[in-house]
Amino acid sequence: MTAASEGVWDRMIRQEISLEQAFAVIRGAMAEGGILASVAGQSAPPVIREEEEDAPALDPSIQSVTSRLIRALLKDGAANTDTCDAIRKTAALIEEGTGISDIRKMRQHHVVELSDLLGRLPPSYRKSAKEREMPLREIAMKAEQEGRPVGLAAGTTNRILQVFQQIVARAGDEGIHIDPKLRPTALRRKKTKRSRNDRLAFTEDQLRRIFGAPTWTGCANIARRHEPGDKIIQDGLYWLPLVAAYTGARREEIAGLTVNDLHEEGGVWCFRFDENEERGIKTESSIRKVPVHPHLIELGILNLRDGEGRLFPGLYRKSAKSKLGNCIDYNWRKIMSERLRPDELPRRCFHSFRHTVVDQLGKMRDIRDRVIKDILGHTPTSITDRVYGSDSEPAEMLEAIQRIPRVF
Q: How big is the CA angle at 334 (ends 215 and 146), to the nearest 5 degrees?
């Protein structure tokens, strides 16, 4: 208590001033001096001063945060170039879909708006030349006017929101101010079916029809691959579906094979799927060797080792960021549409070969589960196999591979 306030209390005690007057004098003195104290048992309200937010040390733009996230993932070996490219594209979609470029200004209602937009986009958005430069909302409006099917798959939407969450988390870890209510993954959609059912396997009859196309039985010439003739052209279009049907490997894993990736090990010819200059690998468990099916050897695949570089040199990238396998996509889709009935086409694509091999191997009850997982590049489920188990021997894997039925 100050000397001035003590004097006031003395005057009050001598009854020179009233209690109310004493309080008034003290409150006035406190206000003039900016003093915050307790009067009559009640705390004076605090003076609140809004401090200016410090300028961030790092660029808070979504694109810059994303670039730093990608550099960190590559440095830690947590993602390959394809994954990083997908993250970069997703960040651009987030920025366009929300209209926000500064991550500090992002709010949960912006996430809601993005989620709504994803539900109004056609699954094939920006695949056509006309839509490539068209704004997302204009694409959605046009699709609605034309009565086209709209709505991205739950898995696609959830992947976008997951990347969104990664970007938000990265910014927060860097000390950039983030709205604490911002939670992109809170809007994840529930999938109506299991992931394994997103794509369907081919039936044996469908496989026979597909490989009964002129590409494998004889075509007119290189420019007329879908017309019957006497020319068998063993290029990427010929080999990629065959290798997929006998290994269950992913299209880009096969397209990126080099001459050195077709090698002999323990007397067994094998494909080696590993990261190289042509393509990355999806996961660590995807690095594997898979025996060559006897039918492929009969068809002459070992002759491709006489070249250099890529095992399938005719494959090419349509653009710097395009995948090698994309160059066969048109002809492959045409084969599917000509050889399968319209009702058989939904949920079937090149990746259906992988589902087909999974089903075929799963029916071989006498083959160890570890062998099947090593062929497919899946992580072993048991702790014993994951920690202590060694890779399956080529001879044991060949026993399973050669039991896959011939496609023609």
A: 175
